[in-house]
Structure to design on (610 residues):
């Protein structure tokens, strides 16, 4: 039985070369800040992004110009083997969508969500395992180099992502290729077309662009890329997360720390901020540490480019290079460096032992306190100092041993004592 | 406060004390002190709580002397009758001393009590009323010293014992309740 569709869900796709095709849209229930995602009835490999009805005509006109240019100028992406041709590396606009001859959105290739996971999940190993992704340093380096390669291709075309963050990146679980979403928000600065990208995320925004517009989008991408790679390799720890050595002016938010340049993981320690104890950055090779230091302590185009990251990571991503080798426990590590996984396990295990010890101490604190008070009052401390003190006092006046009676009997006697003291008080007052 | 409530306030603690008393026999020195304080206490309760008529005004001057001389008499007479040294009831909880030492401490305390009783009468008759009141209250220092000794050597260890018992029982109750859920 044919499904009846609302007339507004019948739209026209305008492919490159102006070839037009009428299709029907099915709601997926997924919606973002700018638009809503629809399935395309006759195109299972594609999705449609329809801008919200509240979008102004002026904005729609801007979107149309940008999408038209993007449809006509798809960038060349990193080469991938023939068996992985179904991998979508960019959710790039493939066709304009018109409704009653008016621009409303665009069509893009569908990313198989069942084969991918958000890069965000890789920042937390437990979450990654829950998503069916068993992380190791080999895979993380591969994901990093694939992301850097993809960004490098965009930068070569003078396209910048600007709002580059783990939530906008998908990772293919088996193949380790990455896919970038929200391409219609990219910054484009070619000779024939220019479009800005106003959207930013403060935690991934370079220091010079806080409270300002992003004047150099590629420099911003360089910062965000370095931040993502650092977090990937360092168990999700943000490069500007630290412990203040001096609490003056230490911002509680990452954005403030980025702005102040409080990067504690450099080869030269920062004066005002210390690294978090769980960090394993010391297990990274010097070549990567130098790139990180340059990315987080310099500004603008002095930061390592995506191409530099590709070159630096290439040897570690290649199995034949021998730059990564298993440790005694079988974890992959950077050759010649301590194993980050073992370091992390030791840190976590140590923290767990300390946590249990602390809890045990808290639980036994009342009993120990009472025991201590009792020993103090009875002067039966086992410490040599306390014993010597007690003996010294005994030498002056021998103290009576505790009465061999129960607490109940002792309380009864004390009631009599208090009565006697009250009687004495009454007679003397 | 009604007479019934007042009676309950002193009778209930004494009843609890009697029911929970240690079962080992008390020495005659302890008994004689107990009897003396029962008598003094009965007098205090009667005139403090129940009697319609006030205590004879002249007796106010004699009250500290009666207490001191009663104690002095007990402290002097008990060793003569072979009832031991009553001072051990007061200080024996804190110190372990020889009989000779107890004998001399007993004599010393008896002397102090006898002198204080006499000095009280002397001050009451020779000095002004205000000075007598000052002297009387300064003697309460003895009571304060006993209270501090008792607090340090008996009440605090006893409180620690009670807290340990309460803590253990609370822990056991918590475990029991946890096992139920």
């Amino acid at each position: 039985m044919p499904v009846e569709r609302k007339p507004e869900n019948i739209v026209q796709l305008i492919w490159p070369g102006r070839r037009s095709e009428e299709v029907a849209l099915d709601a997926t229930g997924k919606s973002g800040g700018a638009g809503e995602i629809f399935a395309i009835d006759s195109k299972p490999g594609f999705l449609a992004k329809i801008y919200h009805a509240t979008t102004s005509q002026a904005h729609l006109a801007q979107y149309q110009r940008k999408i038209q240019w993007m449809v006509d100028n798809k960038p060349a992406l990193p080469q991938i083997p023939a068996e992985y041709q179904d991998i979508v590396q960019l959710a790039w606009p493939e066709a304009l969508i018109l409704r009653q001859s008016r621009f409303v959105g665009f069509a893009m290739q569908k990313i198989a969500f069942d084969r991918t996971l958000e890069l965000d999940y890789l920042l937390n190993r437990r979450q990654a395992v829950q998503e069916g992704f068993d992380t190791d340093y080999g895979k993380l380096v591969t994901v990093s180099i694939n992301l850097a390669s993809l960004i490098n291709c965009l930068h070569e075309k003078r396209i910048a992502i600007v709002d580059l963050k783990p939530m906008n990146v998908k990772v293919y679980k088996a193949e380790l290729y990455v896919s970038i979403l929200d391409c219609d928000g990219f910054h484009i600065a070619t000779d024939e077309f220019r479009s800005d990208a106003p959207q930013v995320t403060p935690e991934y925004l370079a220091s010079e662009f806080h409270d300002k517009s992003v004047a150099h989008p590629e420099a911003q991408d360089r910062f965000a890329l370095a931040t993502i790679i650092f977090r990937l390799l360092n168990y999700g720890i943000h490069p500007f997360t630290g412990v203040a050595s001096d609490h003056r002016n230490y911002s509680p938010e990452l954005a403030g720390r980025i702005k102040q340049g409080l990067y504690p993981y450099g080869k030269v320690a920062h004066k005002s901020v210390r690294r978090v104890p769980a960090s394993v950055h010391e297990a990274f090779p010097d070549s990567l540490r130098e790139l990180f230091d340059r990315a987080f302590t310099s500004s603008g185009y002095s930061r390592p480019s995506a191409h530099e990251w590709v070159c630096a990571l290439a040897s570690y991503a290649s199995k034949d290079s021998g730059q990564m080798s298993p440790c005694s426990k079988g974890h992959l590590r950077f050759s010649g460096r301590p194993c980050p996984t073992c370091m992390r396990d030791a840190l976590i295990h140590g923290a767990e032992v300390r946590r249990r010890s602390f809890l045990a101490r808290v639980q036994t604190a009342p009993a120990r306190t009472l025991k201590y008070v009792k020993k103090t009052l009875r002067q039966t401390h086992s410490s040599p100092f306390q014993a010597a003190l007690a003996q010294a006092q005994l030498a002056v006046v021998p103290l009576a041993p505790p009465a061999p009676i129960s607490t109940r009997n002792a309380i009864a006697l004390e009631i009599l004592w208090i009565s006697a003291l009250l009687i004495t008080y009454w007679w003397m007052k | 406060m009604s007479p019934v409530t007042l009676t309950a306030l002193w009778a209930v603690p004494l009843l609890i004390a009697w029911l929970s008393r240690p079962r080992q026999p008390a020495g005659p020195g302890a008994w004689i002190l107990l009897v003396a304080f029962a008598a003094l206490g009965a007098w205090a309760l009667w005139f403090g709580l129940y009697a319609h008529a006030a205590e004879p005004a002249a007796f106010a001057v004699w009250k500290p002397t009666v207490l001191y001389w009663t104690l002095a008499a007990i402290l002097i007479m008990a060793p003569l009758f072979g009832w031991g040294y009553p001072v051990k009831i007061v200080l024996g909880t804190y110190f372990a001393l020889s009989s000779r030492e107890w004998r001399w401490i007993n004599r010393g305390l008896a002397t102090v009590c006898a002198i204080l009783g006499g000095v009280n009468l002397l001050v009451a008759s020779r000095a002004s009323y205000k000075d007598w009141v000052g002297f009387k209250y300064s003697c309460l220092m003895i009571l304060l010293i006993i209270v501090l000794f008792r607090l340090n050597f008996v009440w605090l260890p006893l409180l620690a014992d009670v807290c340990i018992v309460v803590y253990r029982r609370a822990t056991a109750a918590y475990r029991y309740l946890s096992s139920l859920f």
